[in-house]
Structures are given as structure tokens and as C-alpha cells.
Amino acid sequence: MPGDLPRQRFVLDTSLFITEEIRRDDESLEAAVLRLLGLVSTARLELNISCYVPPSIHDELGTMLRERDVDDAVFSRLDTWVVRKSPDRYGVTIPANVVYNFIDEMSDRVDRGLRVSEEAIREVEQLDPDKLTREADDGEREAYMTEADRVLSNLRDKYRRALRQGVLDSREDFDLLILARELDAGVVTEDRGIISWADEFGLRYVRGGQFPTLLEEYLRATGVADDD
Fold first, then answer.
1. How is residue 208 annotated by DSSP?
2. Is 214 exposed, middle or buried (0-12, 13-18, 19+ CB in 10 A)?
3. CATH class given for the domain over 8-92+172-222
4. What's the pLDDT tens digit per position in 185-198?
5. Is the separation of the CB atoms in 225 and 219 below 8 Å?
6. Would you kindly state where each structural domain of the chain is located, as residue ranges?
7. Residue 124 contacts residue 148 (beta carbons within 8 Å)
8. Is the dihedral angle over the CA atoms 20, 21, 25, 28 positive or is it negative?
9. For the chain, percent helix, then strand, then coil, each to nearest 5?
10. pTM flag (> 0.90)
């Protein structure tokens, strides 16, 4: 059957494996990832569907999975059924308009980041000096969140959202898109920034939480029962 079906390719993001959206009720992360990789393997053998990751994504994913103490069986299946391939950064071309839009967006985000910083400075200026520090009964400074600490914490959150949320902010994200463009593959991710730029690149994409269901539907429609 695989030889009779047109070949489909997907490039997988780290977020696919980590998101809660791929888990069934009371299913652990390890069990969900093993089930997902079982679907990937069946789709590869029966439906001519191949899944890829760039080495940078593979390394990032490996680190995250080890931090969550997953079994070695997960890494074995991952390396068996998900192809590790470096993107052709020299051969793949990007439309000038994509680069133009990226520069325009980053310029706008820098302005937003500056505004967030200015608002935090003005807020600190309005604080009561007595609220900036606090002394314990023994006369020593207490290690606790002062009003200035609160402003700084809010600044970090707002600044991060202004500059990073919804934008390509890592080599891993860029590798994912370049590889998908090279292979004419669909992108599988839960990252809103990657989804937004997949549109800019003219790429197909699937939300990570929907990917297991998509594979199950493909298998069901072709009369293939997944063993897992």
C-alpha cells in the first residue's frame, strides 16, 4: 500500500511532544509520546508518511524529555521513526517580502519593548521610598518581594511578550521552517509564532494537539488499524 500512496512529509516541533493537548485523560507524558510515535511508525509503514526534525529541534526535545525522566524506549522510537535532517540553509530561498515583513515586525516590537520599559520606570518613580526596602526586626534587610521587585517582575513578563510572543525567536524555529520549505512538508507545532510564519512561508501546518487525531483518521480512512 505505501507505494500506491503519494508521499507526505511533516516536520515536527518540540511543542508537539510536550503539549497537554496530545494526552488522553489521565495519560502521562511518556505514555502520550509513545502512543504518538506508534502512530508515526504505522503511518510511515502503511501510508508513506514521513516525519522529520532538524538536529537543533532533536537536541532541544531530547533535553526536555530527559528533564521529565522519560524512559529510554521513547528515545529509541524517536530515533527510529522520526528522521533527523539538517535544513539546506544555503539552497533554500526565502521571498524578499518575508524578510521585509520580519524586519518590519521586529522594528515594531522593539518600539513596544521600549514603551513597556518606559512605563515601568515611571511606575517606579511614583513609588514610596519606604516601600522599596524593608528591614526585619533584627535590623537586617529581608529577602522578599518589594514594590520595586514587583514592577521588575511585571516588566520582564510584558517585555518578553512584546518582543518574543508570536515571533521567530530562535534558531530552532527557523530551522523548522527552512526544512519544511525544503521538503515541501507540513509543519506540526503548538507555537503561535511558528504558525504565523508558516503562513508567511506559504507552508501547510497542523496544530500539535490535532496531529495524533489526523494520523488516526488517515489510518481509519485507509482501513489500517494501528497496533498501539
1. G
2. middle
3. alpha beta
4. 999 999 888 998 89
5. yes
6. 8-92+172-222, 96-164
7. yes
8. negative
9. 60, 10, 30
10. no
